[in-house]
Amino acid sequence: MTALQAPPSAPEVLSRCRELVRPALEEAVAGLHPWLAEMAAYCFGWCEVGGAPAAAPGGKGVRQALAVLGAEAAGADGRAGVPAAVAVELVHAFSLLHDDIMDGDGTRRRRPAVWQAYGTGPAVLAGDALFALAVQTLAGVARDPGALGLLSAALADLVRGQADDLLFASRPRTGPERVTPAEYRAMAEGKTGALLGCAVALGAALGGAPEATVTALEQAGRRLGIAFQLVDDVLGIWGDPAVTGKPVGGDLREGKKTFPVLVALASPAACRLPELLGRPERAEEAAALIEAAGGRAAALAEARTHTAAARALLVGTPLAAPAAADLLALLDFLVGREL
Q1: Which of 76, 120, 203, 274 is deepest in the core (most CB within 10 A)?
Q2: Is the dihedral of CA 99, 103, 106, 107 positive or negative?
Q3: 3-state class of 267 per DSSP?
Q4: Taking the CB of residue 230, how many other CB atoms lie within 10 A of it?
Q5: What is the model's pLDDT at position 247?
């Protein structure tokens, strides 16, 4: 890069990493049973039901990018992080397949979710296959057992976070048994942060980074995950449907206990909020009450705190310069949607 060239933007970084990872990801999926491979390809947006090629909306590829950038941050070629990117992306897809079933979400990225398109049983089986393939992919390249340890620890935290998230739905909105913001932070770190931290740490480990660097990157990724979830909570109530792909106030219509809601429920200013949550016709009123009670401001402030912590970890860790800049740009892009 010459002095006159601007560094790549975060979308350009994401695109570059997706292009690097996709051939290996397609090759891994192709090794599955043909029926399972089709469901996986549908999940990734590569085909329609029945296998016809498609170019459906896919994810941003955040976890893929973090794995590639983790390897580059260690001074290695980004290709060293590709197996980590494939493994983590497979785990992410597995979690989405099962999450949609558990949450009863019938759509994913503006298409029928896999369980709606193929059936619940087949979707569960496809998720199981992706999970097994992720472990197999990493085991085939990782000479250091610590790499598999990173993945298994992230999986344990992810499952624990998902369990907490499901249990939150059955807990009361007020009183001593209510969900606290601290419990929500722990859930968000497990459900969202663990896999982001694992992605960048695994990439760094495969790139030959020392243990201290791997640990720092994992912690930065976890903080990024918490911030990302908090911003997602804000967008789930006040976001533009054209950007989020979700209806305005969708989280409120479903009665979800997101961070802004939990903060507002603890405020005397929102004493009427419990009766409004989960009532679609009162979602707009509930959103205004949450904002007046400080829920939106508190969620964004909390997101800024975790973003700053992630940035401090990245800046304070010796990393290869181009990758360090790309990681910081990605951090700002992912959590700057409402900040």
Answers
A1: 203
A2: negative
A3: coil
A4: 30
A5: 60
